[in-house]
Amino acid sequence: MATIKEIAEKAECSIGTVSRVLNFDESLRVSDEKREKILKVAEELQYETKHQKKQKKKHIVGVVSMYTTMEELEDPFYLSIRLGVEKAVNDKSIELRIVHDTHDGFDLKRLKDVDGIIAIGHFTEEEINAFEKLTPHIVFVNASPNELKYDSILFDGKHAIREVINHLYTLGHRDIGFIGVKATREKKGIDLKETRYHLMKKALSQKGLYQEKFIYHGGMTYKDGYTIMKKIIDKDELPSAFLIGNDSMCIGALTALYEAGIRVPEHISIVGYNDITNAEYAQPPLTTIKVYTELMGEHALTMLVDKLKGREIPLKLITPTHLVVRKSSGPANGKTN
Prior knowledge:
Layout lengths: L3 H8 L3 H8 L9 H13 L5 H6 L3 E7 L3 H6 L2 H12 L5 E7 L15 E5 L4 H10 L3 E4 L9 E5 L1 H14 L5 E4 L15 H12 L8 E2 L5 H14 L5 E4 L2 H13 L9 E6 L12 E5 L1 H16 L7 E4 L1 E4 L13
Parallel strand pairs: 1-2, 1-3, 3-4, 4-5, 5-11, 6-7, 6-8, 8-9, 9-10
Antiparallel strand pairs: 10-12
């Protein structure tokens, strides 16, 4: 931010003259040429008067999470996105109002005077309509209900799954299973379509490797991963590798395998999804798909502020992913193809 002294030096006049010109002192006698030069320099240096600073609008942004506070802790994917939004607020011109689902709906009263909304997750048509009545400025994160109308931020799921399958295939795996995340909003009538499953099925089918008997659905927490893997172990029909829908479930599955004496990756390889903080410290450290969730949150706020400044054309941003290879994946039967 420029100072009056800097403006005075560049405009070649006194600090007092600059101060009186910028504060529109009508009693000041100065040539129009000098006044115009001072104002031009101030504009070039992006100087703001005290009056302008006071008049600077403070934006109120609603951050609405599809998850309850407890679900956010159990599966930190959306928590990380929200923290990314909060991290991006680096000045006092933006006030955030955080609203979670309560299973009984959202507290829309907290959003009644917001300038814009960042909606994290999937929402019903009724919920989206309710948001739109509050503000036309909405950015959806990890969903894109109408890309011709709303800004949205997604991650490149196709690349993520393709990278996992290629990694496991190169290691010699041909029996590859999948444990998917439960559609936690089924009771609201939202079809989450389990995108990861459909992409996994397509990628395996293209290589002639898809086997329905190795596909499991349901769950999202550490406990769910543990329970599902226990049931799979009891069936005594394990594939040589599993992709699991999130890291929390994956770490639960690792515990079940350890208790059964099934070594990872010597007996079975495990790949997670999201790269949460605990993934690196699991036993063994977890091979997982890195999703830049904080980046998604940061850019959601940037896009919303840009929209509040007048942008009319909706944008759709796809963030990258990459596979972080650690020790939970290894060669099938001890050798690669």
